[in-house]
Amino acid sequence: MGMETTQQMKALDERYFMPAFSRDMAIVKGEGSKVWDGEGKEYIDCVAGIAVCSTGHCHPEVVKAICDQAHQLIHCSNLYYVPHQGEVAKKVVEITGMHKAFFSNSGAEATDGALKLARVRTGKKKFVAFTHGFHGRTIGSLAVTHKPAIREPFEPLGMEKTFVEYGDLEGLKKAVDSDTAGVIVEPIQGEAGVIIPPDTFFEGIREVCDKSGALMIVDEVQTGLGRTGKWLGIQHTKVKPDIVTLAKGIASGFPMGALAAREDLEFKKSEHGSTFAGGPLACAASLATLGVIEKILPEVAVKGERFRNGLAKYNPRVRGLMIGITIGDKCPEIQKKCAEQGVLVNCAADGNLRLVPPLTISNAEIDTVVKVLNGTLG
Ligand SMILES: Cc1ncc(COP(=O)(O)O)c(C=O)c1O
What we know:
This protein has a 7-stranded mixed sheet, with helices on both faces. Strand 11 and strand 12 form a beta hairpin. The chain has helices at 6-16, 48-51, 60-72, 85-96, 107-122, 139-143, 148-151, 169-175, 199-212, 280-310, 331-340, 363-377, and strands at residues 27-31, 34-37, 42-45, 100-104, 126-130, 161-164, 180-185, 215-219, 243-246, 257-261, 317-319, 322-326, 343-344, 346-347, 352-355. The chain folds into 2 domains: 6-58 and 300-377, Aspartate Aminotransferase, domain 1 (Alpha-Beta Complex); 61-290, Aspartate Aminotransferase, domain 2, CATH 3.40.640.10. It has 12 helices and 15 strands. The chain starts with 5 loop residues before the first helix and ends with a helix. Helix 3 (60-72) packs antiparallel against helix 10, helix 4 (85-96) runs parallel beside helix 10 and helix 10 (280-310) crosses helix 12 (363-377). Bound molecules: pyridoxal-5'-phosphate (PLP). Pyridoxal-5'-phosphate (PLP) binds at residues 50, 106-108, 111, 134-136, 186, 190-191, 219, 221-222, 247. One of its GO terms (biological process) is L-arginine biosynthetic process.
């Protein structure tokens, strides 16, 4: 396979691919925190596939694990024990403090699995989610995703749910009733633009769930796996959820998601499944990824502080290497100017600039990003 030019990719995209995405550049190569576009221009990547490439692009240990496994067995089906699946499940259980794990192919499917688990084990039907929350775009996960512009065209989505203002415990108390199966919440809202609520919010959710019998589902798809400087975003609080979902950073870009649940909460025979989920390649990639993250985890908070200090005058919201800056209408222009100067950043919702670089980003790279942002933001 030869390398395509950006023009060739654009022409094929315009003719043959449904125009659901907005894009104007191609990324054709990556190494560590750097990527290269179709014209060979180099960038420091503070998007990292939207918080996916946490070990950096093409980390040698992850590449080796995928290649070794590809030579051995690419797929076999969950009709059989799958190489590395149990090892990853053990690791996921250890890092989440949960009891058992289950795999999916994406974050949205992890949400769907969590919603199914909550419904089947509680026998209840309803969910409560929060304004500006994002949990995916499948029919199930979209039902609990707030943003009206992406959800409403597809209603009715067959799920009874209520949206409560993120942070509003009084509203939550009113919304949860005896038929509520679960409350789903992000520890930090990622797509909304890195919104960090007080710890008391999560303590309050736990209390409401304990009183009503609803399950507390924490969506760690974006915040999990070291992104915030701990394995989970919720681990910055003392709260223990009932169900945790993971995806994005779990296998360095190989499609994979997971859910993990506390004791007495598990799928029984035939209640859930998927052809590809937790396959040999995904699990090999994940095992290597989790090993790399374990080594670099202690440095994540320190690197986040380096960003915080460098960007202090813009009042950034920083937890580990999940960083948000409120810019407003100029956000797309800032994103473009940074790209021109070799730094990829991305506009999340509501004019919030988001930085979620590889957890392996070096101090020198952080300093370059800070310099470019300071120059661009003025
Ligand atoms: C918190 C959260 N949950 C779920 C998802 C959906 O994940 P995926 O795009 O892998 O389906 C995302 C994706 O951005 C997310 O940020």
